[in-house]
What does this fold into?
Amino acid sequence: MNSTFEAFKTKAEAVSAEVHRFPTQAEALAFILGFLQESGVSDAPQCGAVWAAGSFLDGARKDDLKVKVPGITFEVTKEASADSKVGISQLDWAISSTGTLVQDAAAVEKRLVSTLPTIHVAILGTDRILADMGSVLEHLRPQQIDYISFITGPSRTADIERVLTIGVHGPARLIIVVVDEFQKVTA
Amino acid sequence: MTTQFKESIETALHNSNLTGALGRFSEAYRISRAKAYEGIDFEATRDQIVEIKSDASSRFEELAVQFKQSAEACGAKVFRTSDPEQVKKYILDLAKEKGVKRVVKSKSMASEEIHLNKALEAAGMEVDETDLGEWIIQLAHQTPSHMVMPAIHMTKEEVATVFSEEVEEGQMPDIPKLVKFARAKLRPKFLAADMGITGANIAVAESGSLVIVTNEGNARLVSTLPGIHVAIVGIEKLVAMVKDIQPILTALPRSATGQLLTSYVSIISGAVPNTDGTPKELHIILMDNHRSDMAKDPMFKPALQCIRCATCLNVCPVFRLVGGHVFGKTYTGGIGTILTAWFDELKKADDIQGLCIQCGSCVPLCPGKIDIPGLILELRRRLVVEKGQSLAMKAIFGVVNNRRLFHSMLRMASVTQKPFTTGRFIRHLPLFLSDMTEFRSLPAVAPSPLRDTIKKIDQPKAKAKEKVVFYAGCLIDFCYPEMGESLVKILNKAGIEVVFPDDQTCCGAPARYNGAYEVAGQNAKDNIKALLATEASYVVSACPTCTVALKHDFIDTFKSLGDTGTMADAEKLSAKTIDFSTLIKKLVDEGRLTLKEGEALGKITYHDSCHLKRTLKASDEPRELLKMAGHEIAEMYECDTCCGMAGSYSIKLPEISAPILERKLKHIKETGASKVVMDCPGCVMQIRGGLDKDGTPIRAEHTVESLANRFK
It folds into this structure.
């Protein structure tokens, strides 16, 4: 598992994603809350954080989270997402050979939080990292799922003079939070 | 070529932004592409792609029916049409019915192909391209100059001016700021749009899925925010199975931009919920527009294996000089020439097919394994069949087809050229011929051709048990007989007698490369007869273009003409034909030739001729021979990039040939070698002529000359 994770981390960082790994969900949650505070998330306009539903939140006291970081909302709408600084969502799988995150994104909330805010925090179970795209497509089958998203690093362009510039239409930062004990929750 | 076309080339060549940006990109591209493919078996990947796409193009109808069923089962509406007008009508009707006022688009070449934006705007809709490059050229009222990087021809200063004039005054030429500005200005458009239009990179019949690849994330927004999503998909994007996605996505980003994967890939397989909870209106338009006609043409069917990565643009020595605009409004570069001929009309490809220099650089790197230069040659042939050869060309080929007349004219030239000759060069020609000598000197026609001088060589007949037939080709025969004499000298050392059949004539390559296949066919027949008359173990040539003609083109020309009468003999000749360096290397390996030992001949550099390296696959043989002889090889940058000669190309398009040669000379000089060696008399003519004009004291010679005195 370590070597798969390391391979994933190397590839993801090579495309400007930021990767953090935690043994437990509690530690991951603490990191995320700290990160939100540091990033200036608040209930002021343009400073919110939208958090899309996912098993990571199962059992979490959402009201407490809102108290800890005012500005977090779990009601993901187009307006709230467009007005937020950070979007948080849980990803289903990852690909180590390319540093890619993969998600069943049929639920529109999952797409809104990862497209409109300038920062996307992506939560992933360590055991969810597979070798290649083919392996992922056996789990997330396009025959059954209407919208599958593959995300490899933040939004980028090189359309002006071929100079790489991060954050055109999508997020300018992609923070990947990998959790070891996560499988117990998702299982 | 039309004056207008010549002018567009002239404009492009003088656009230093364009040539600078493309030149730098083409250099960086090779490195990033190679790095992206580390650990990937490219050959195996492209074999898979060919299998997937050629299977699909064999049964478009069946896959289109299946795609429609699968997609409609998941809530999409699929509209199939062969007519671009119907595509526009469908979208306009839909927009009217739903009261659409604002449209956002993600990059779609299919929509460019049918000029959709114009139609939508004419109907009163506000249409915005959201891919940054596409938005820039939309605001600048231009068309894309590259399939992957539409605005590569513009500088940040030009972009700032366009933004200031078209959107909001005061924009500075600072790239991060310009990108931020685009984000800020396009964001409200995404949020307010009623309809989103995308293309698709892959359409999977089994699942009704669209695969859409972007880096900016605009396709995700376009397919998520507006209530209506319309995808315009050319039927060549169809594949049978979900498992076919991976090989294509392995190659596409690596070949297109040197990325392992683009930032975003979306696989959309059905109507998903909208932001307000209503189900998405998902309309997929499967557009044919001559693609199935193409699939029915056995020669052009492989062109449907294209995955639109634009490698053929990025590695093309001509594209990097002229960019995309000279190719027309939609598809550009090598594959663009072919697609334009089919999706638009053959006539539209008349001028642009002439841009292909036939160097073959794109062939080994094409993920769809498309023989782009071969198909462009076929377009050329069909154009000649359709509209006939020009009178001037007819006159030239009339002469070439009559060996005695042709050869006596060449002999005459050695006399009439005298006023223009200095030593063995022609440095200036008068009047309309001056273009030919503007950037390089031409070789003077030799006083006596090889066909005369070879008879004076006393070959050791007594011991010779083995004969080799020598096919000289026009350049060695009439301009560089000393190359032929050196070849005889070397083969004699191996105890081989060299036979020169007098009836050999032009190899037909000039005619073939100008689409005059009947002429090339007659040249082939005359040569087959002449070269097979003597029983010999090999037919050797020291000109790679001639070698390719003997080995491959005769057969292909007969196939194209449907002329099977001489096919068996053409195959016999093909089997016997060998290029000079490969034959000599073989004789050395067999111990029949031995190089002198202990020679220190100094540093040279080697230029790979296009046909030798890419068609005959010989690049190690000459290098090894030169090293064994005692040379040290200092490799030049882009050693296998075309020198710009390409037969009559340098006469038809001297303005392109000249800068290609200039680059080559620069790379030769950078090695510090005192000599550049190559295996093709045509390349010698170009490079030696360029060095002479330039006054550079570097010698250019054929490997046969370098090795002439090196054997024991």
In short: The radius of gyration of chain A is 16 Å.
